[in-house]
Amino acid sequence: MATAQNSTSPVNVGVVLDMDTWLGKMGLSCITMALSDFYASHSNYKTRLVLNTRDSKRDVVGAAAAALDLIKNVQVRAILGPSSSMQADFMIDLGDKAQVPIISFSATSPFLSWIQSPYFIRATQNDSSQVKAISAIVQAFGWREVVPIYAGNEFGQGIIPFLTDALTNIDVRVPYRSIIPSSATDDQILAELYNLMTMQTRIFIVHLWSTLGSRLFAKAKEVGMMDQGYIWIITDSLTDIFNELDPSVIDSMQGVIGVKPYIPQTKRRADFTIRWKKKFQRDNPNVLNAELNVFGLWAYDAATALAISVEKAGTSDLGFQNSNVSKNSTDLETFGVSQTGPDLLETLNSITFKGLSGDFRIVNGQLQPSAYQIVNVLGNGGRGIGFWTEEHGIVKRLNLTDTSTYSTSKTNLKSIIWPGDTTSPSKGWEIPTNGKRLRIGVPVKDGFSEFVMVTRDPSMNATKVTGYCIDAFDAAMKLLPYAVPYDYIPFDKTGATYNDLVYQVYLGNFDAAVGDITIRANRSIYADFTLPYTESGVLMVVPVKDNKEKNVWVFLRPLTWELWVTSFCSFVFIGFVVWFLEHRINEDFRGPPSHEVGLIFCYTASLASMLTVQKLQPVITDVNELLKNKDNVGYLEGSFVLGILKQLNFDETNLKVFNSPDELDELFIKGSKNGGIAAAFDEIPYIKVFLARYCSNTAPTAPSSIPFAQPLSPEPPRSGGPSSVPAAVADAVSTKDRFVHVSCRGTVEAFRSSTLVRATVKVPLLTFFE
Questions:
Q1: What is the per-residue DSSP string for 667-699?
Q2: 210, 243, 422, 611: which is deepest, by most CB within 10 A?
Q3: CB proximity list for 187: less than 8 A, separation 6 or greater
Q4: What kind of fold does domain 2-125+266-367 have according to CATH?
Q5: Which residue ranges does the record annotate as region Disordered (predicted)?
Q6: Does the CA dihedral 127-133-136-141 come out positive or negative?
Q7: CB 718 within 8 A of CB 173
Q8: What CATH number was assigned to the domain covering residues 539-547+616-704?
Q9: 438-534+707-756 with 539-547+616-704: one CATH topology?
Q10: Residue pLDDT, tens place only, 84-123
Q11: Other C-beta atoms within 10 Å of 457: how many?
């Protein structure tokens, strides 16, 4: 054993960590255990890593000074660390100049790249590798806008370009970026949260380190931003360290969604965790309930990778070239260059082994990403609800042999408890706290309540608005990927017309108007109209002559009188013959089958035709006939049809107004000569409602929209949330795809069937005895 020990060559390596932090203590502990475990199982190796530890004291300058000391005065062949991305930036330049690999297991910023310096080895996941997992979650729930909240330093800013690109690729807007200064006070955090509350977006992606993130969520709960309606997504910077967070912080994060690298559970990892807890507790007796996280596993694997690489690189020429070093000097001009640096770097970039964190493989200075686990903060920590992989997207279970296509379906996730202890996710967009609810104007009228009906409850001091148009508008608004609160405001001004209602939208008294409002050229000057969802056009309805048989003896009509007499005589004659023959031989008999079948079918067809086919003929077929006879005609009160009738030269004395289907039917019963009407002109939807009730005495003679009205828009709504309150209505109902979606789901047709055609026509029994 002594011989083996004497034949090994010590190789100095540096360790630069924040020794007074949890990450620094855990990292150093895992590094020392990694080397102890590795050389215990590889006693034949000729090299032994000797750790030279320096405390960076949570300072960028301190980290750079420690690295400079290790390179110049100790001539280390590699450095493990530093703890943060900010500290790594200058250290990378030092390593590049001295050809000393800088191996970090916790610097995650994408700004630190292999392109910047080939001597930087990232033995942890790049922050940019998780943005696709986050964007997949956003896409799965159909959110259209998100606001990133990140630290105002290199760590926070590094992920933003990649996150923005990933969101843009799925047509998600980033209307605002919330930057939290590294030294932000509680008052500054509160001010920023209040600013976010005034915005429409309710989806936030948080990329902060533990201390700053903990304070943010504590204040978010304090101001009510952890209630229902808000969605919070956190990156692995917080998800990986749940065990370190105070229980009060976890309590303030209930309902948050997060992503973190998936580390498979193995027996080797479980055994190491037990050993590590015992050792860490001995070394740090003041730290209670210590829990190992993924950064400790990466520290273990990084130390193992360095030990393997140093052995493979060899022990020859381990010195520095052109080094003119004076003791305790930190003069950059006296830098030497490591002779083993290039070989060691090449070995590190080609290493592959099975580590505690899973498959450990470095390519171009970067640890290759693995699957991400999606977690939901519930209770005392995170609960796994699914996974994301580069090949398959969101999946409920990991299956490396699965050949299914990429998926972003939320059905692949387990049940989620959202902020506010609800299972229903927010739509991600709401009227801001300093905003207003939409005011939707609706007409108030007496008749044709199937379209819009306004009822008031004096006892409750409340107004209820129902009808076909209301149902269609509600269905369209529900399709929006964000919540838009609105109220229906009755427009009950005496003598007001639909033109007046549309003009109120133009004046800004209403954000939109919903009802049986027809698109007219004069109205389009003042408001935009959505796509129509009913037929439009004007029809004329007139009484009809009904030639259908209405007599109790109608069953005699299929046969002529002569045929009835012949049939009767045949019946008597056949009866006599039957009697004459039966009383002697009693044999079976029947007439020719063809005669019987032909007679039966002829009779049934004729009788069925008389009983079912209505031979209706309009009393009047031409408008000119009405003008010539100076007949009275009807129109709906407040309708633009009055203007059309005047254009047709109808005298005002011949124009009769009606307000409901019942009034229209009474006018038809009276007739033109008795103060009634000979014809009525109205729009197709109203005519259909009338005919659904009274179709036995009237018929239409010749059709073709009832849209919603909204303020004029200079440009179409954007792909995300609307830029203004009225634009929310436009986004809901002015796109053809969205209305097609409502129609395909049967929503509009169901409303039409249940609301517009409720009446059934019943024919009285006495009709047959007229």
A1: HHHH-GGGTS-SEEEEEHHHHHHHHHH--SSEE
A2: 210
A3: none
A4: Rossmann fold (3.40.50)
A5: 705-727
A6: negative
A7: yes
A8: 3.40.190.10
A9: yes
A10: 988 998 899 999 999 999 999 999 989 887 667 899 999 9
A11: 9
